[in-house]
Amino acid sequence: NQELIHHRNILFPGFTNDLLKIKTMKLRPDDTFIIGYPKSGTTWTEEIVWLVENNLDYDKSLKTSHFERVLFLDKEPIIKIDQLPAPRVLKSHLPLEYLPDDIAKFCKVIYIMRNPKDVLVSYFSFVKWLKDLEFSGTLEDIVEHFSKNKILYGDWCDHVNKYFSNPDVLFICYEDLLEKQMETVKKIVEFLGKKKTDEEIEKLIEFTSFHKMKTNKSFGMIPKDWNEFIDKFDFKLFFRKGQIGNWVSHFTEKMSDFVDEIVKQKINPKIKVRYLPLKES
Ligand code: A3P
């Protein structure tokens, strides 16, 4: 097991690359970075973006490992990232200040935010499998960690606020990607400078739907060294429920009020966080 990394009061997984190497990495103008706090729908956004960037090559999406097509910047050797053919689609969970300066001016950065209660339930279900965390607590413990900045990749409000405040970043929400799909995918396509017809976008939405992705074998083709940090890897771990408001079945009222209070105090008031499906909110 690798030790967790503590840096400036932020906790990173033990597998994290040399942070300085990331900060000084060579950017290319045709790079696209997909960033999100863990469990916010990053994998889903990556797949949509990879397909848009690669001429909707569904065949390749099914036949080649997602994790080799979209490299995980925080973990993969920088040399491998340097050698990835253009256009690179890279995934990261890092707070903005850990990425190269002016990254969103040089290349495209898409940030996905998800409501923190669903993030915490998803995170709780996932961290049990991470070897270096050795976590055996309850969801209530995770909510406590949320208030004490002990969740991987730091404070959720800080993470979101910084990307939101950068005018060059395309900021999207998991909830909109699920419920206002056409509109949100169109925003992504336009941001990437591509043109797709409504029919093409409808097919893309269908191909990247929760149930389709859950059975897409490319997510089961994991890099060899992943078994070092994930216990009994099963790619279904990445596709658990795929819903808005699943937290309602797991949170007590006290836990919910606690998260509301923290978010109210720290989040940029311009950010609209949606906790429930549209028809219920
Ligand atoms: P749940 O655990 O709530 O189901 P990340 O990729 O950032 O780790 O985020 C994982 C979350 O995104 C999981 O949430 C997962 O189910 C959800 N997800 C992945 N693909 C999805 C899709 N195509 N549609 C909706 N949700 C998806």
- Helix and strand content put the structural class at alpha/beta
Coarse shape: globular
Instruction: Give a short account of the largest sheet.
Output: 5 strands, parallel
Order of helices and strands, N to C? EEHEHHHEHEHEHHHEHHHHH
User: What ligands are attached or bound here?
Assistant: adenosine-3'-5'-diphosphate
Strand content: 5-15%
- What is Rg? 18 Å
End-to-end Cα distance, whole Å, is 43 Å
The overall strand count is 7
Spatial order of the strands in the main sheet?
4-5-3-6-7
User: Average pLDDT across residues?
Assistant: 94
How helical, in percent, are the residues? 40-55%
Report the uncertain regions: none
Quickly count the helices: 14
Note down, in words, how this protein is organized:
Helix 7 packs across helix 8, helix 8 runs parallel beside helix 14 and helix 11 packs across helix 12. The strands form 2 sheets. Strands 4-5-3-6-7 form a 5-stranded parallel β-sheet, sandwiched between helices. By secondary structure, the protein is an alpha/beta fold. The model has no long low-confidence stretch (mean pLDDT 94). Helix content is 41%, strand content 10%. Bound molecules: adenosine-3'-5'-diphosphate. Adenosine-3'-5'-diphosphate (A3P) binds next to helix 2, helix 7 and helix 13. Pfam families: Sulfotransfer_1. Belongs to the sulfotransferase 1 family. GO terms for molecular function: sulfotransferase activity. Keywords: Transferase.
